[in-house]
């Protein structure tokens, strides 16, 4: 039980740090780093649940692969948007991107 | 297995330490390297929790992704080394409150829920890799294919967005 709790506590703290980063940063790449940390926290929890609760159920491990795919897609789309924004405005500062609100 | 909680706590501490360091430095490159260290420590946690395949995958994938991130940082920023000490944050108090609230909620769930009996042992690394492959190619095949098509669509969309309009 101790190891599961340690992993869950680490996941919770990483999620909190990532949420703070995603909300407090103005640079697109730094915001993406916050999101990556939150997804990392989710992966820690998934692996802990798999190992300590259901080590015979490999859908748990597969879920981690899905989260890794989500991280790759997030980086891919984020850098695509960043490059488009940089080409158009010369900056990826999101405080200067208020017109994206629609 | 006395080493397991110690190893998970050790790598978890490193992951949190470098996770915090990502947002404490003004240097973009240091931020990317701190995130790399944090993600590598998460890979270490996977290894300590006997998920060998996922641990190695995490280490390899994150090393590549963070290297790419550092390159983009240098491309986009006028001051990637943070020498000008420019502050790139806003709404710090509300972000801190939201982060603390989210963390406390997650901690509350982690500590207050009865998780039931703990499994004493995990399958060996070879059995895990085989079982994960079978899971991927049988029951979760549709999800696997959907993820593959989604990432292909995202790549095409990202290139289309990055190229911009032609006049």
Strands, helices and their partners?
The complex is a heterodimer of chains A (102) and B (167).
Chain A: H1 2-24, H2 28-52, H3 59-89
Chain B: H1 3-22, H2 28-48, H3 52-76, H4 92-112, H5 125-137, H6 141-163
Description:
- The complex is a heterodimer of chains A (102) and B (167).
- With 102 residues, chain A is mostly helical.
- Chain A has a single domain, classed as Helix Hairpins.
- Chain A is built from three helices and no strands.
- In chain A, α1 packs antiparallel against α2 (28-52) and α2 packs antiparallel against α3 (59-89).
- Chain A is elongated and about 50 Å long.
- Chain B is an all-alpha fold and 167 residues long.
- Chain B folds into two domains: 1-82; 124-167.
- Chain B contains six helices and no strands.
- Chain B starts with a helix and ends with a helix.
- Chains A and B meet through α1, α2 and α3 of A and α1, α2, α3, α4 and α5 of B.
Keywords for this structure?
A: about 100 residues; B: about 170 residues; mainly alpha; 2 domains; about 75% helix
- Helix coverage percent of residues of chain B? over 70%
The share of residues in helices of chain A is: over 70%
- Alpha-carbon Rg of chain B, integer: 20 Å
What form of chain A results from the Cα inertia axes?
A: elongated
- Taking pLDDT < 50 over at least 5 consecutive residues as the criterion, the unreliable ranges of chain B are none
- How many helical stretches of chain B? 6
Q: Could you give a short account of the major beta sheet of chain A?
A: none
Global mean pLDDT of chain A: 90
Low-confidence sequence ranges of chain A: none
**With helices defined by DSSP (H or I, 4 residues minimum), what is the helix count of chain A?**
3
Q: Give helix and strand order of chain A, one letter per element, not per position.
A: HHH
What's the end-to-end separation of chain A, in Å?
49 Å
The tally of domains of chain B stands at 2
The main pleated sheet of chain B reads as: none
Assign the CATH architecture of chain A: Orthogonal Bundle
């Amino acid at each position: 039980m101790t190891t599961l709790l340690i992993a869950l506590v680490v996941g919770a703290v990483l999620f909190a740090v990532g949420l703070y980063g995603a909300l407090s940063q103005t640079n697109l790449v730094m915001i993406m780093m916050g999101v990556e940390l939150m997804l990392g926290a989710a992966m820690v929890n998934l692996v802990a649940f798999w190992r300590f609760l259901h080590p015979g159920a490999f859908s748990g491990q597969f879920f981690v692969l899905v989260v890794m795919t989500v991280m790759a897609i997030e980086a891919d789309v984020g850098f695509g948007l960043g490059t488009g924004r940089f080409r158009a405005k010369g900056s990826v500062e999101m405080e200067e991107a208020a017109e994206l609100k629609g | 297995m006395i080493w397991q909680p110690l190893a998970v706590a050790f790598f978890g501490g490193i992951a949190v330490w470098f996770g915090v360091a990502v947002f404490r430095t003004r240097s973009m490159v240091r931020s990317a390297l701190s995130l790399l260290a944090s993600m590598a420590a998460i890979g270490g946690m996977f290894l300590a929790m006997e998920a060998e395949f996922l641990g190695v995958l995490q280490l390899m994938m994150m090393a590549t992704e963070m290297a790419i991130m550092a390159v983009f940082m240098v491309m986009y920023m006028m001051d990637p080394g943070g020498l000008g000490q420019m502050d790139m944050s806003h709404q710090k108090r509300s972000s801190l409150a939201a982060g603390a609230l989210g963390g406390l909620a997650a901690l509350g769930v982690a500590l207050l829920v009865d998780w039931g009996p703990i499994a004493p042992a995990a399958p060996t690394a070879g059995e895990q890799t085989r079982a994960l492959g079978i899971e991927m190619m049988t029951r979760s095949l549709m999800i696997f294919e959907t993820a593959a098509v989604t990432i292909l669509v995202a790549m095409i969309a990202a290139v289309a967005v990055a190229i911009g309009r032609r006049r």
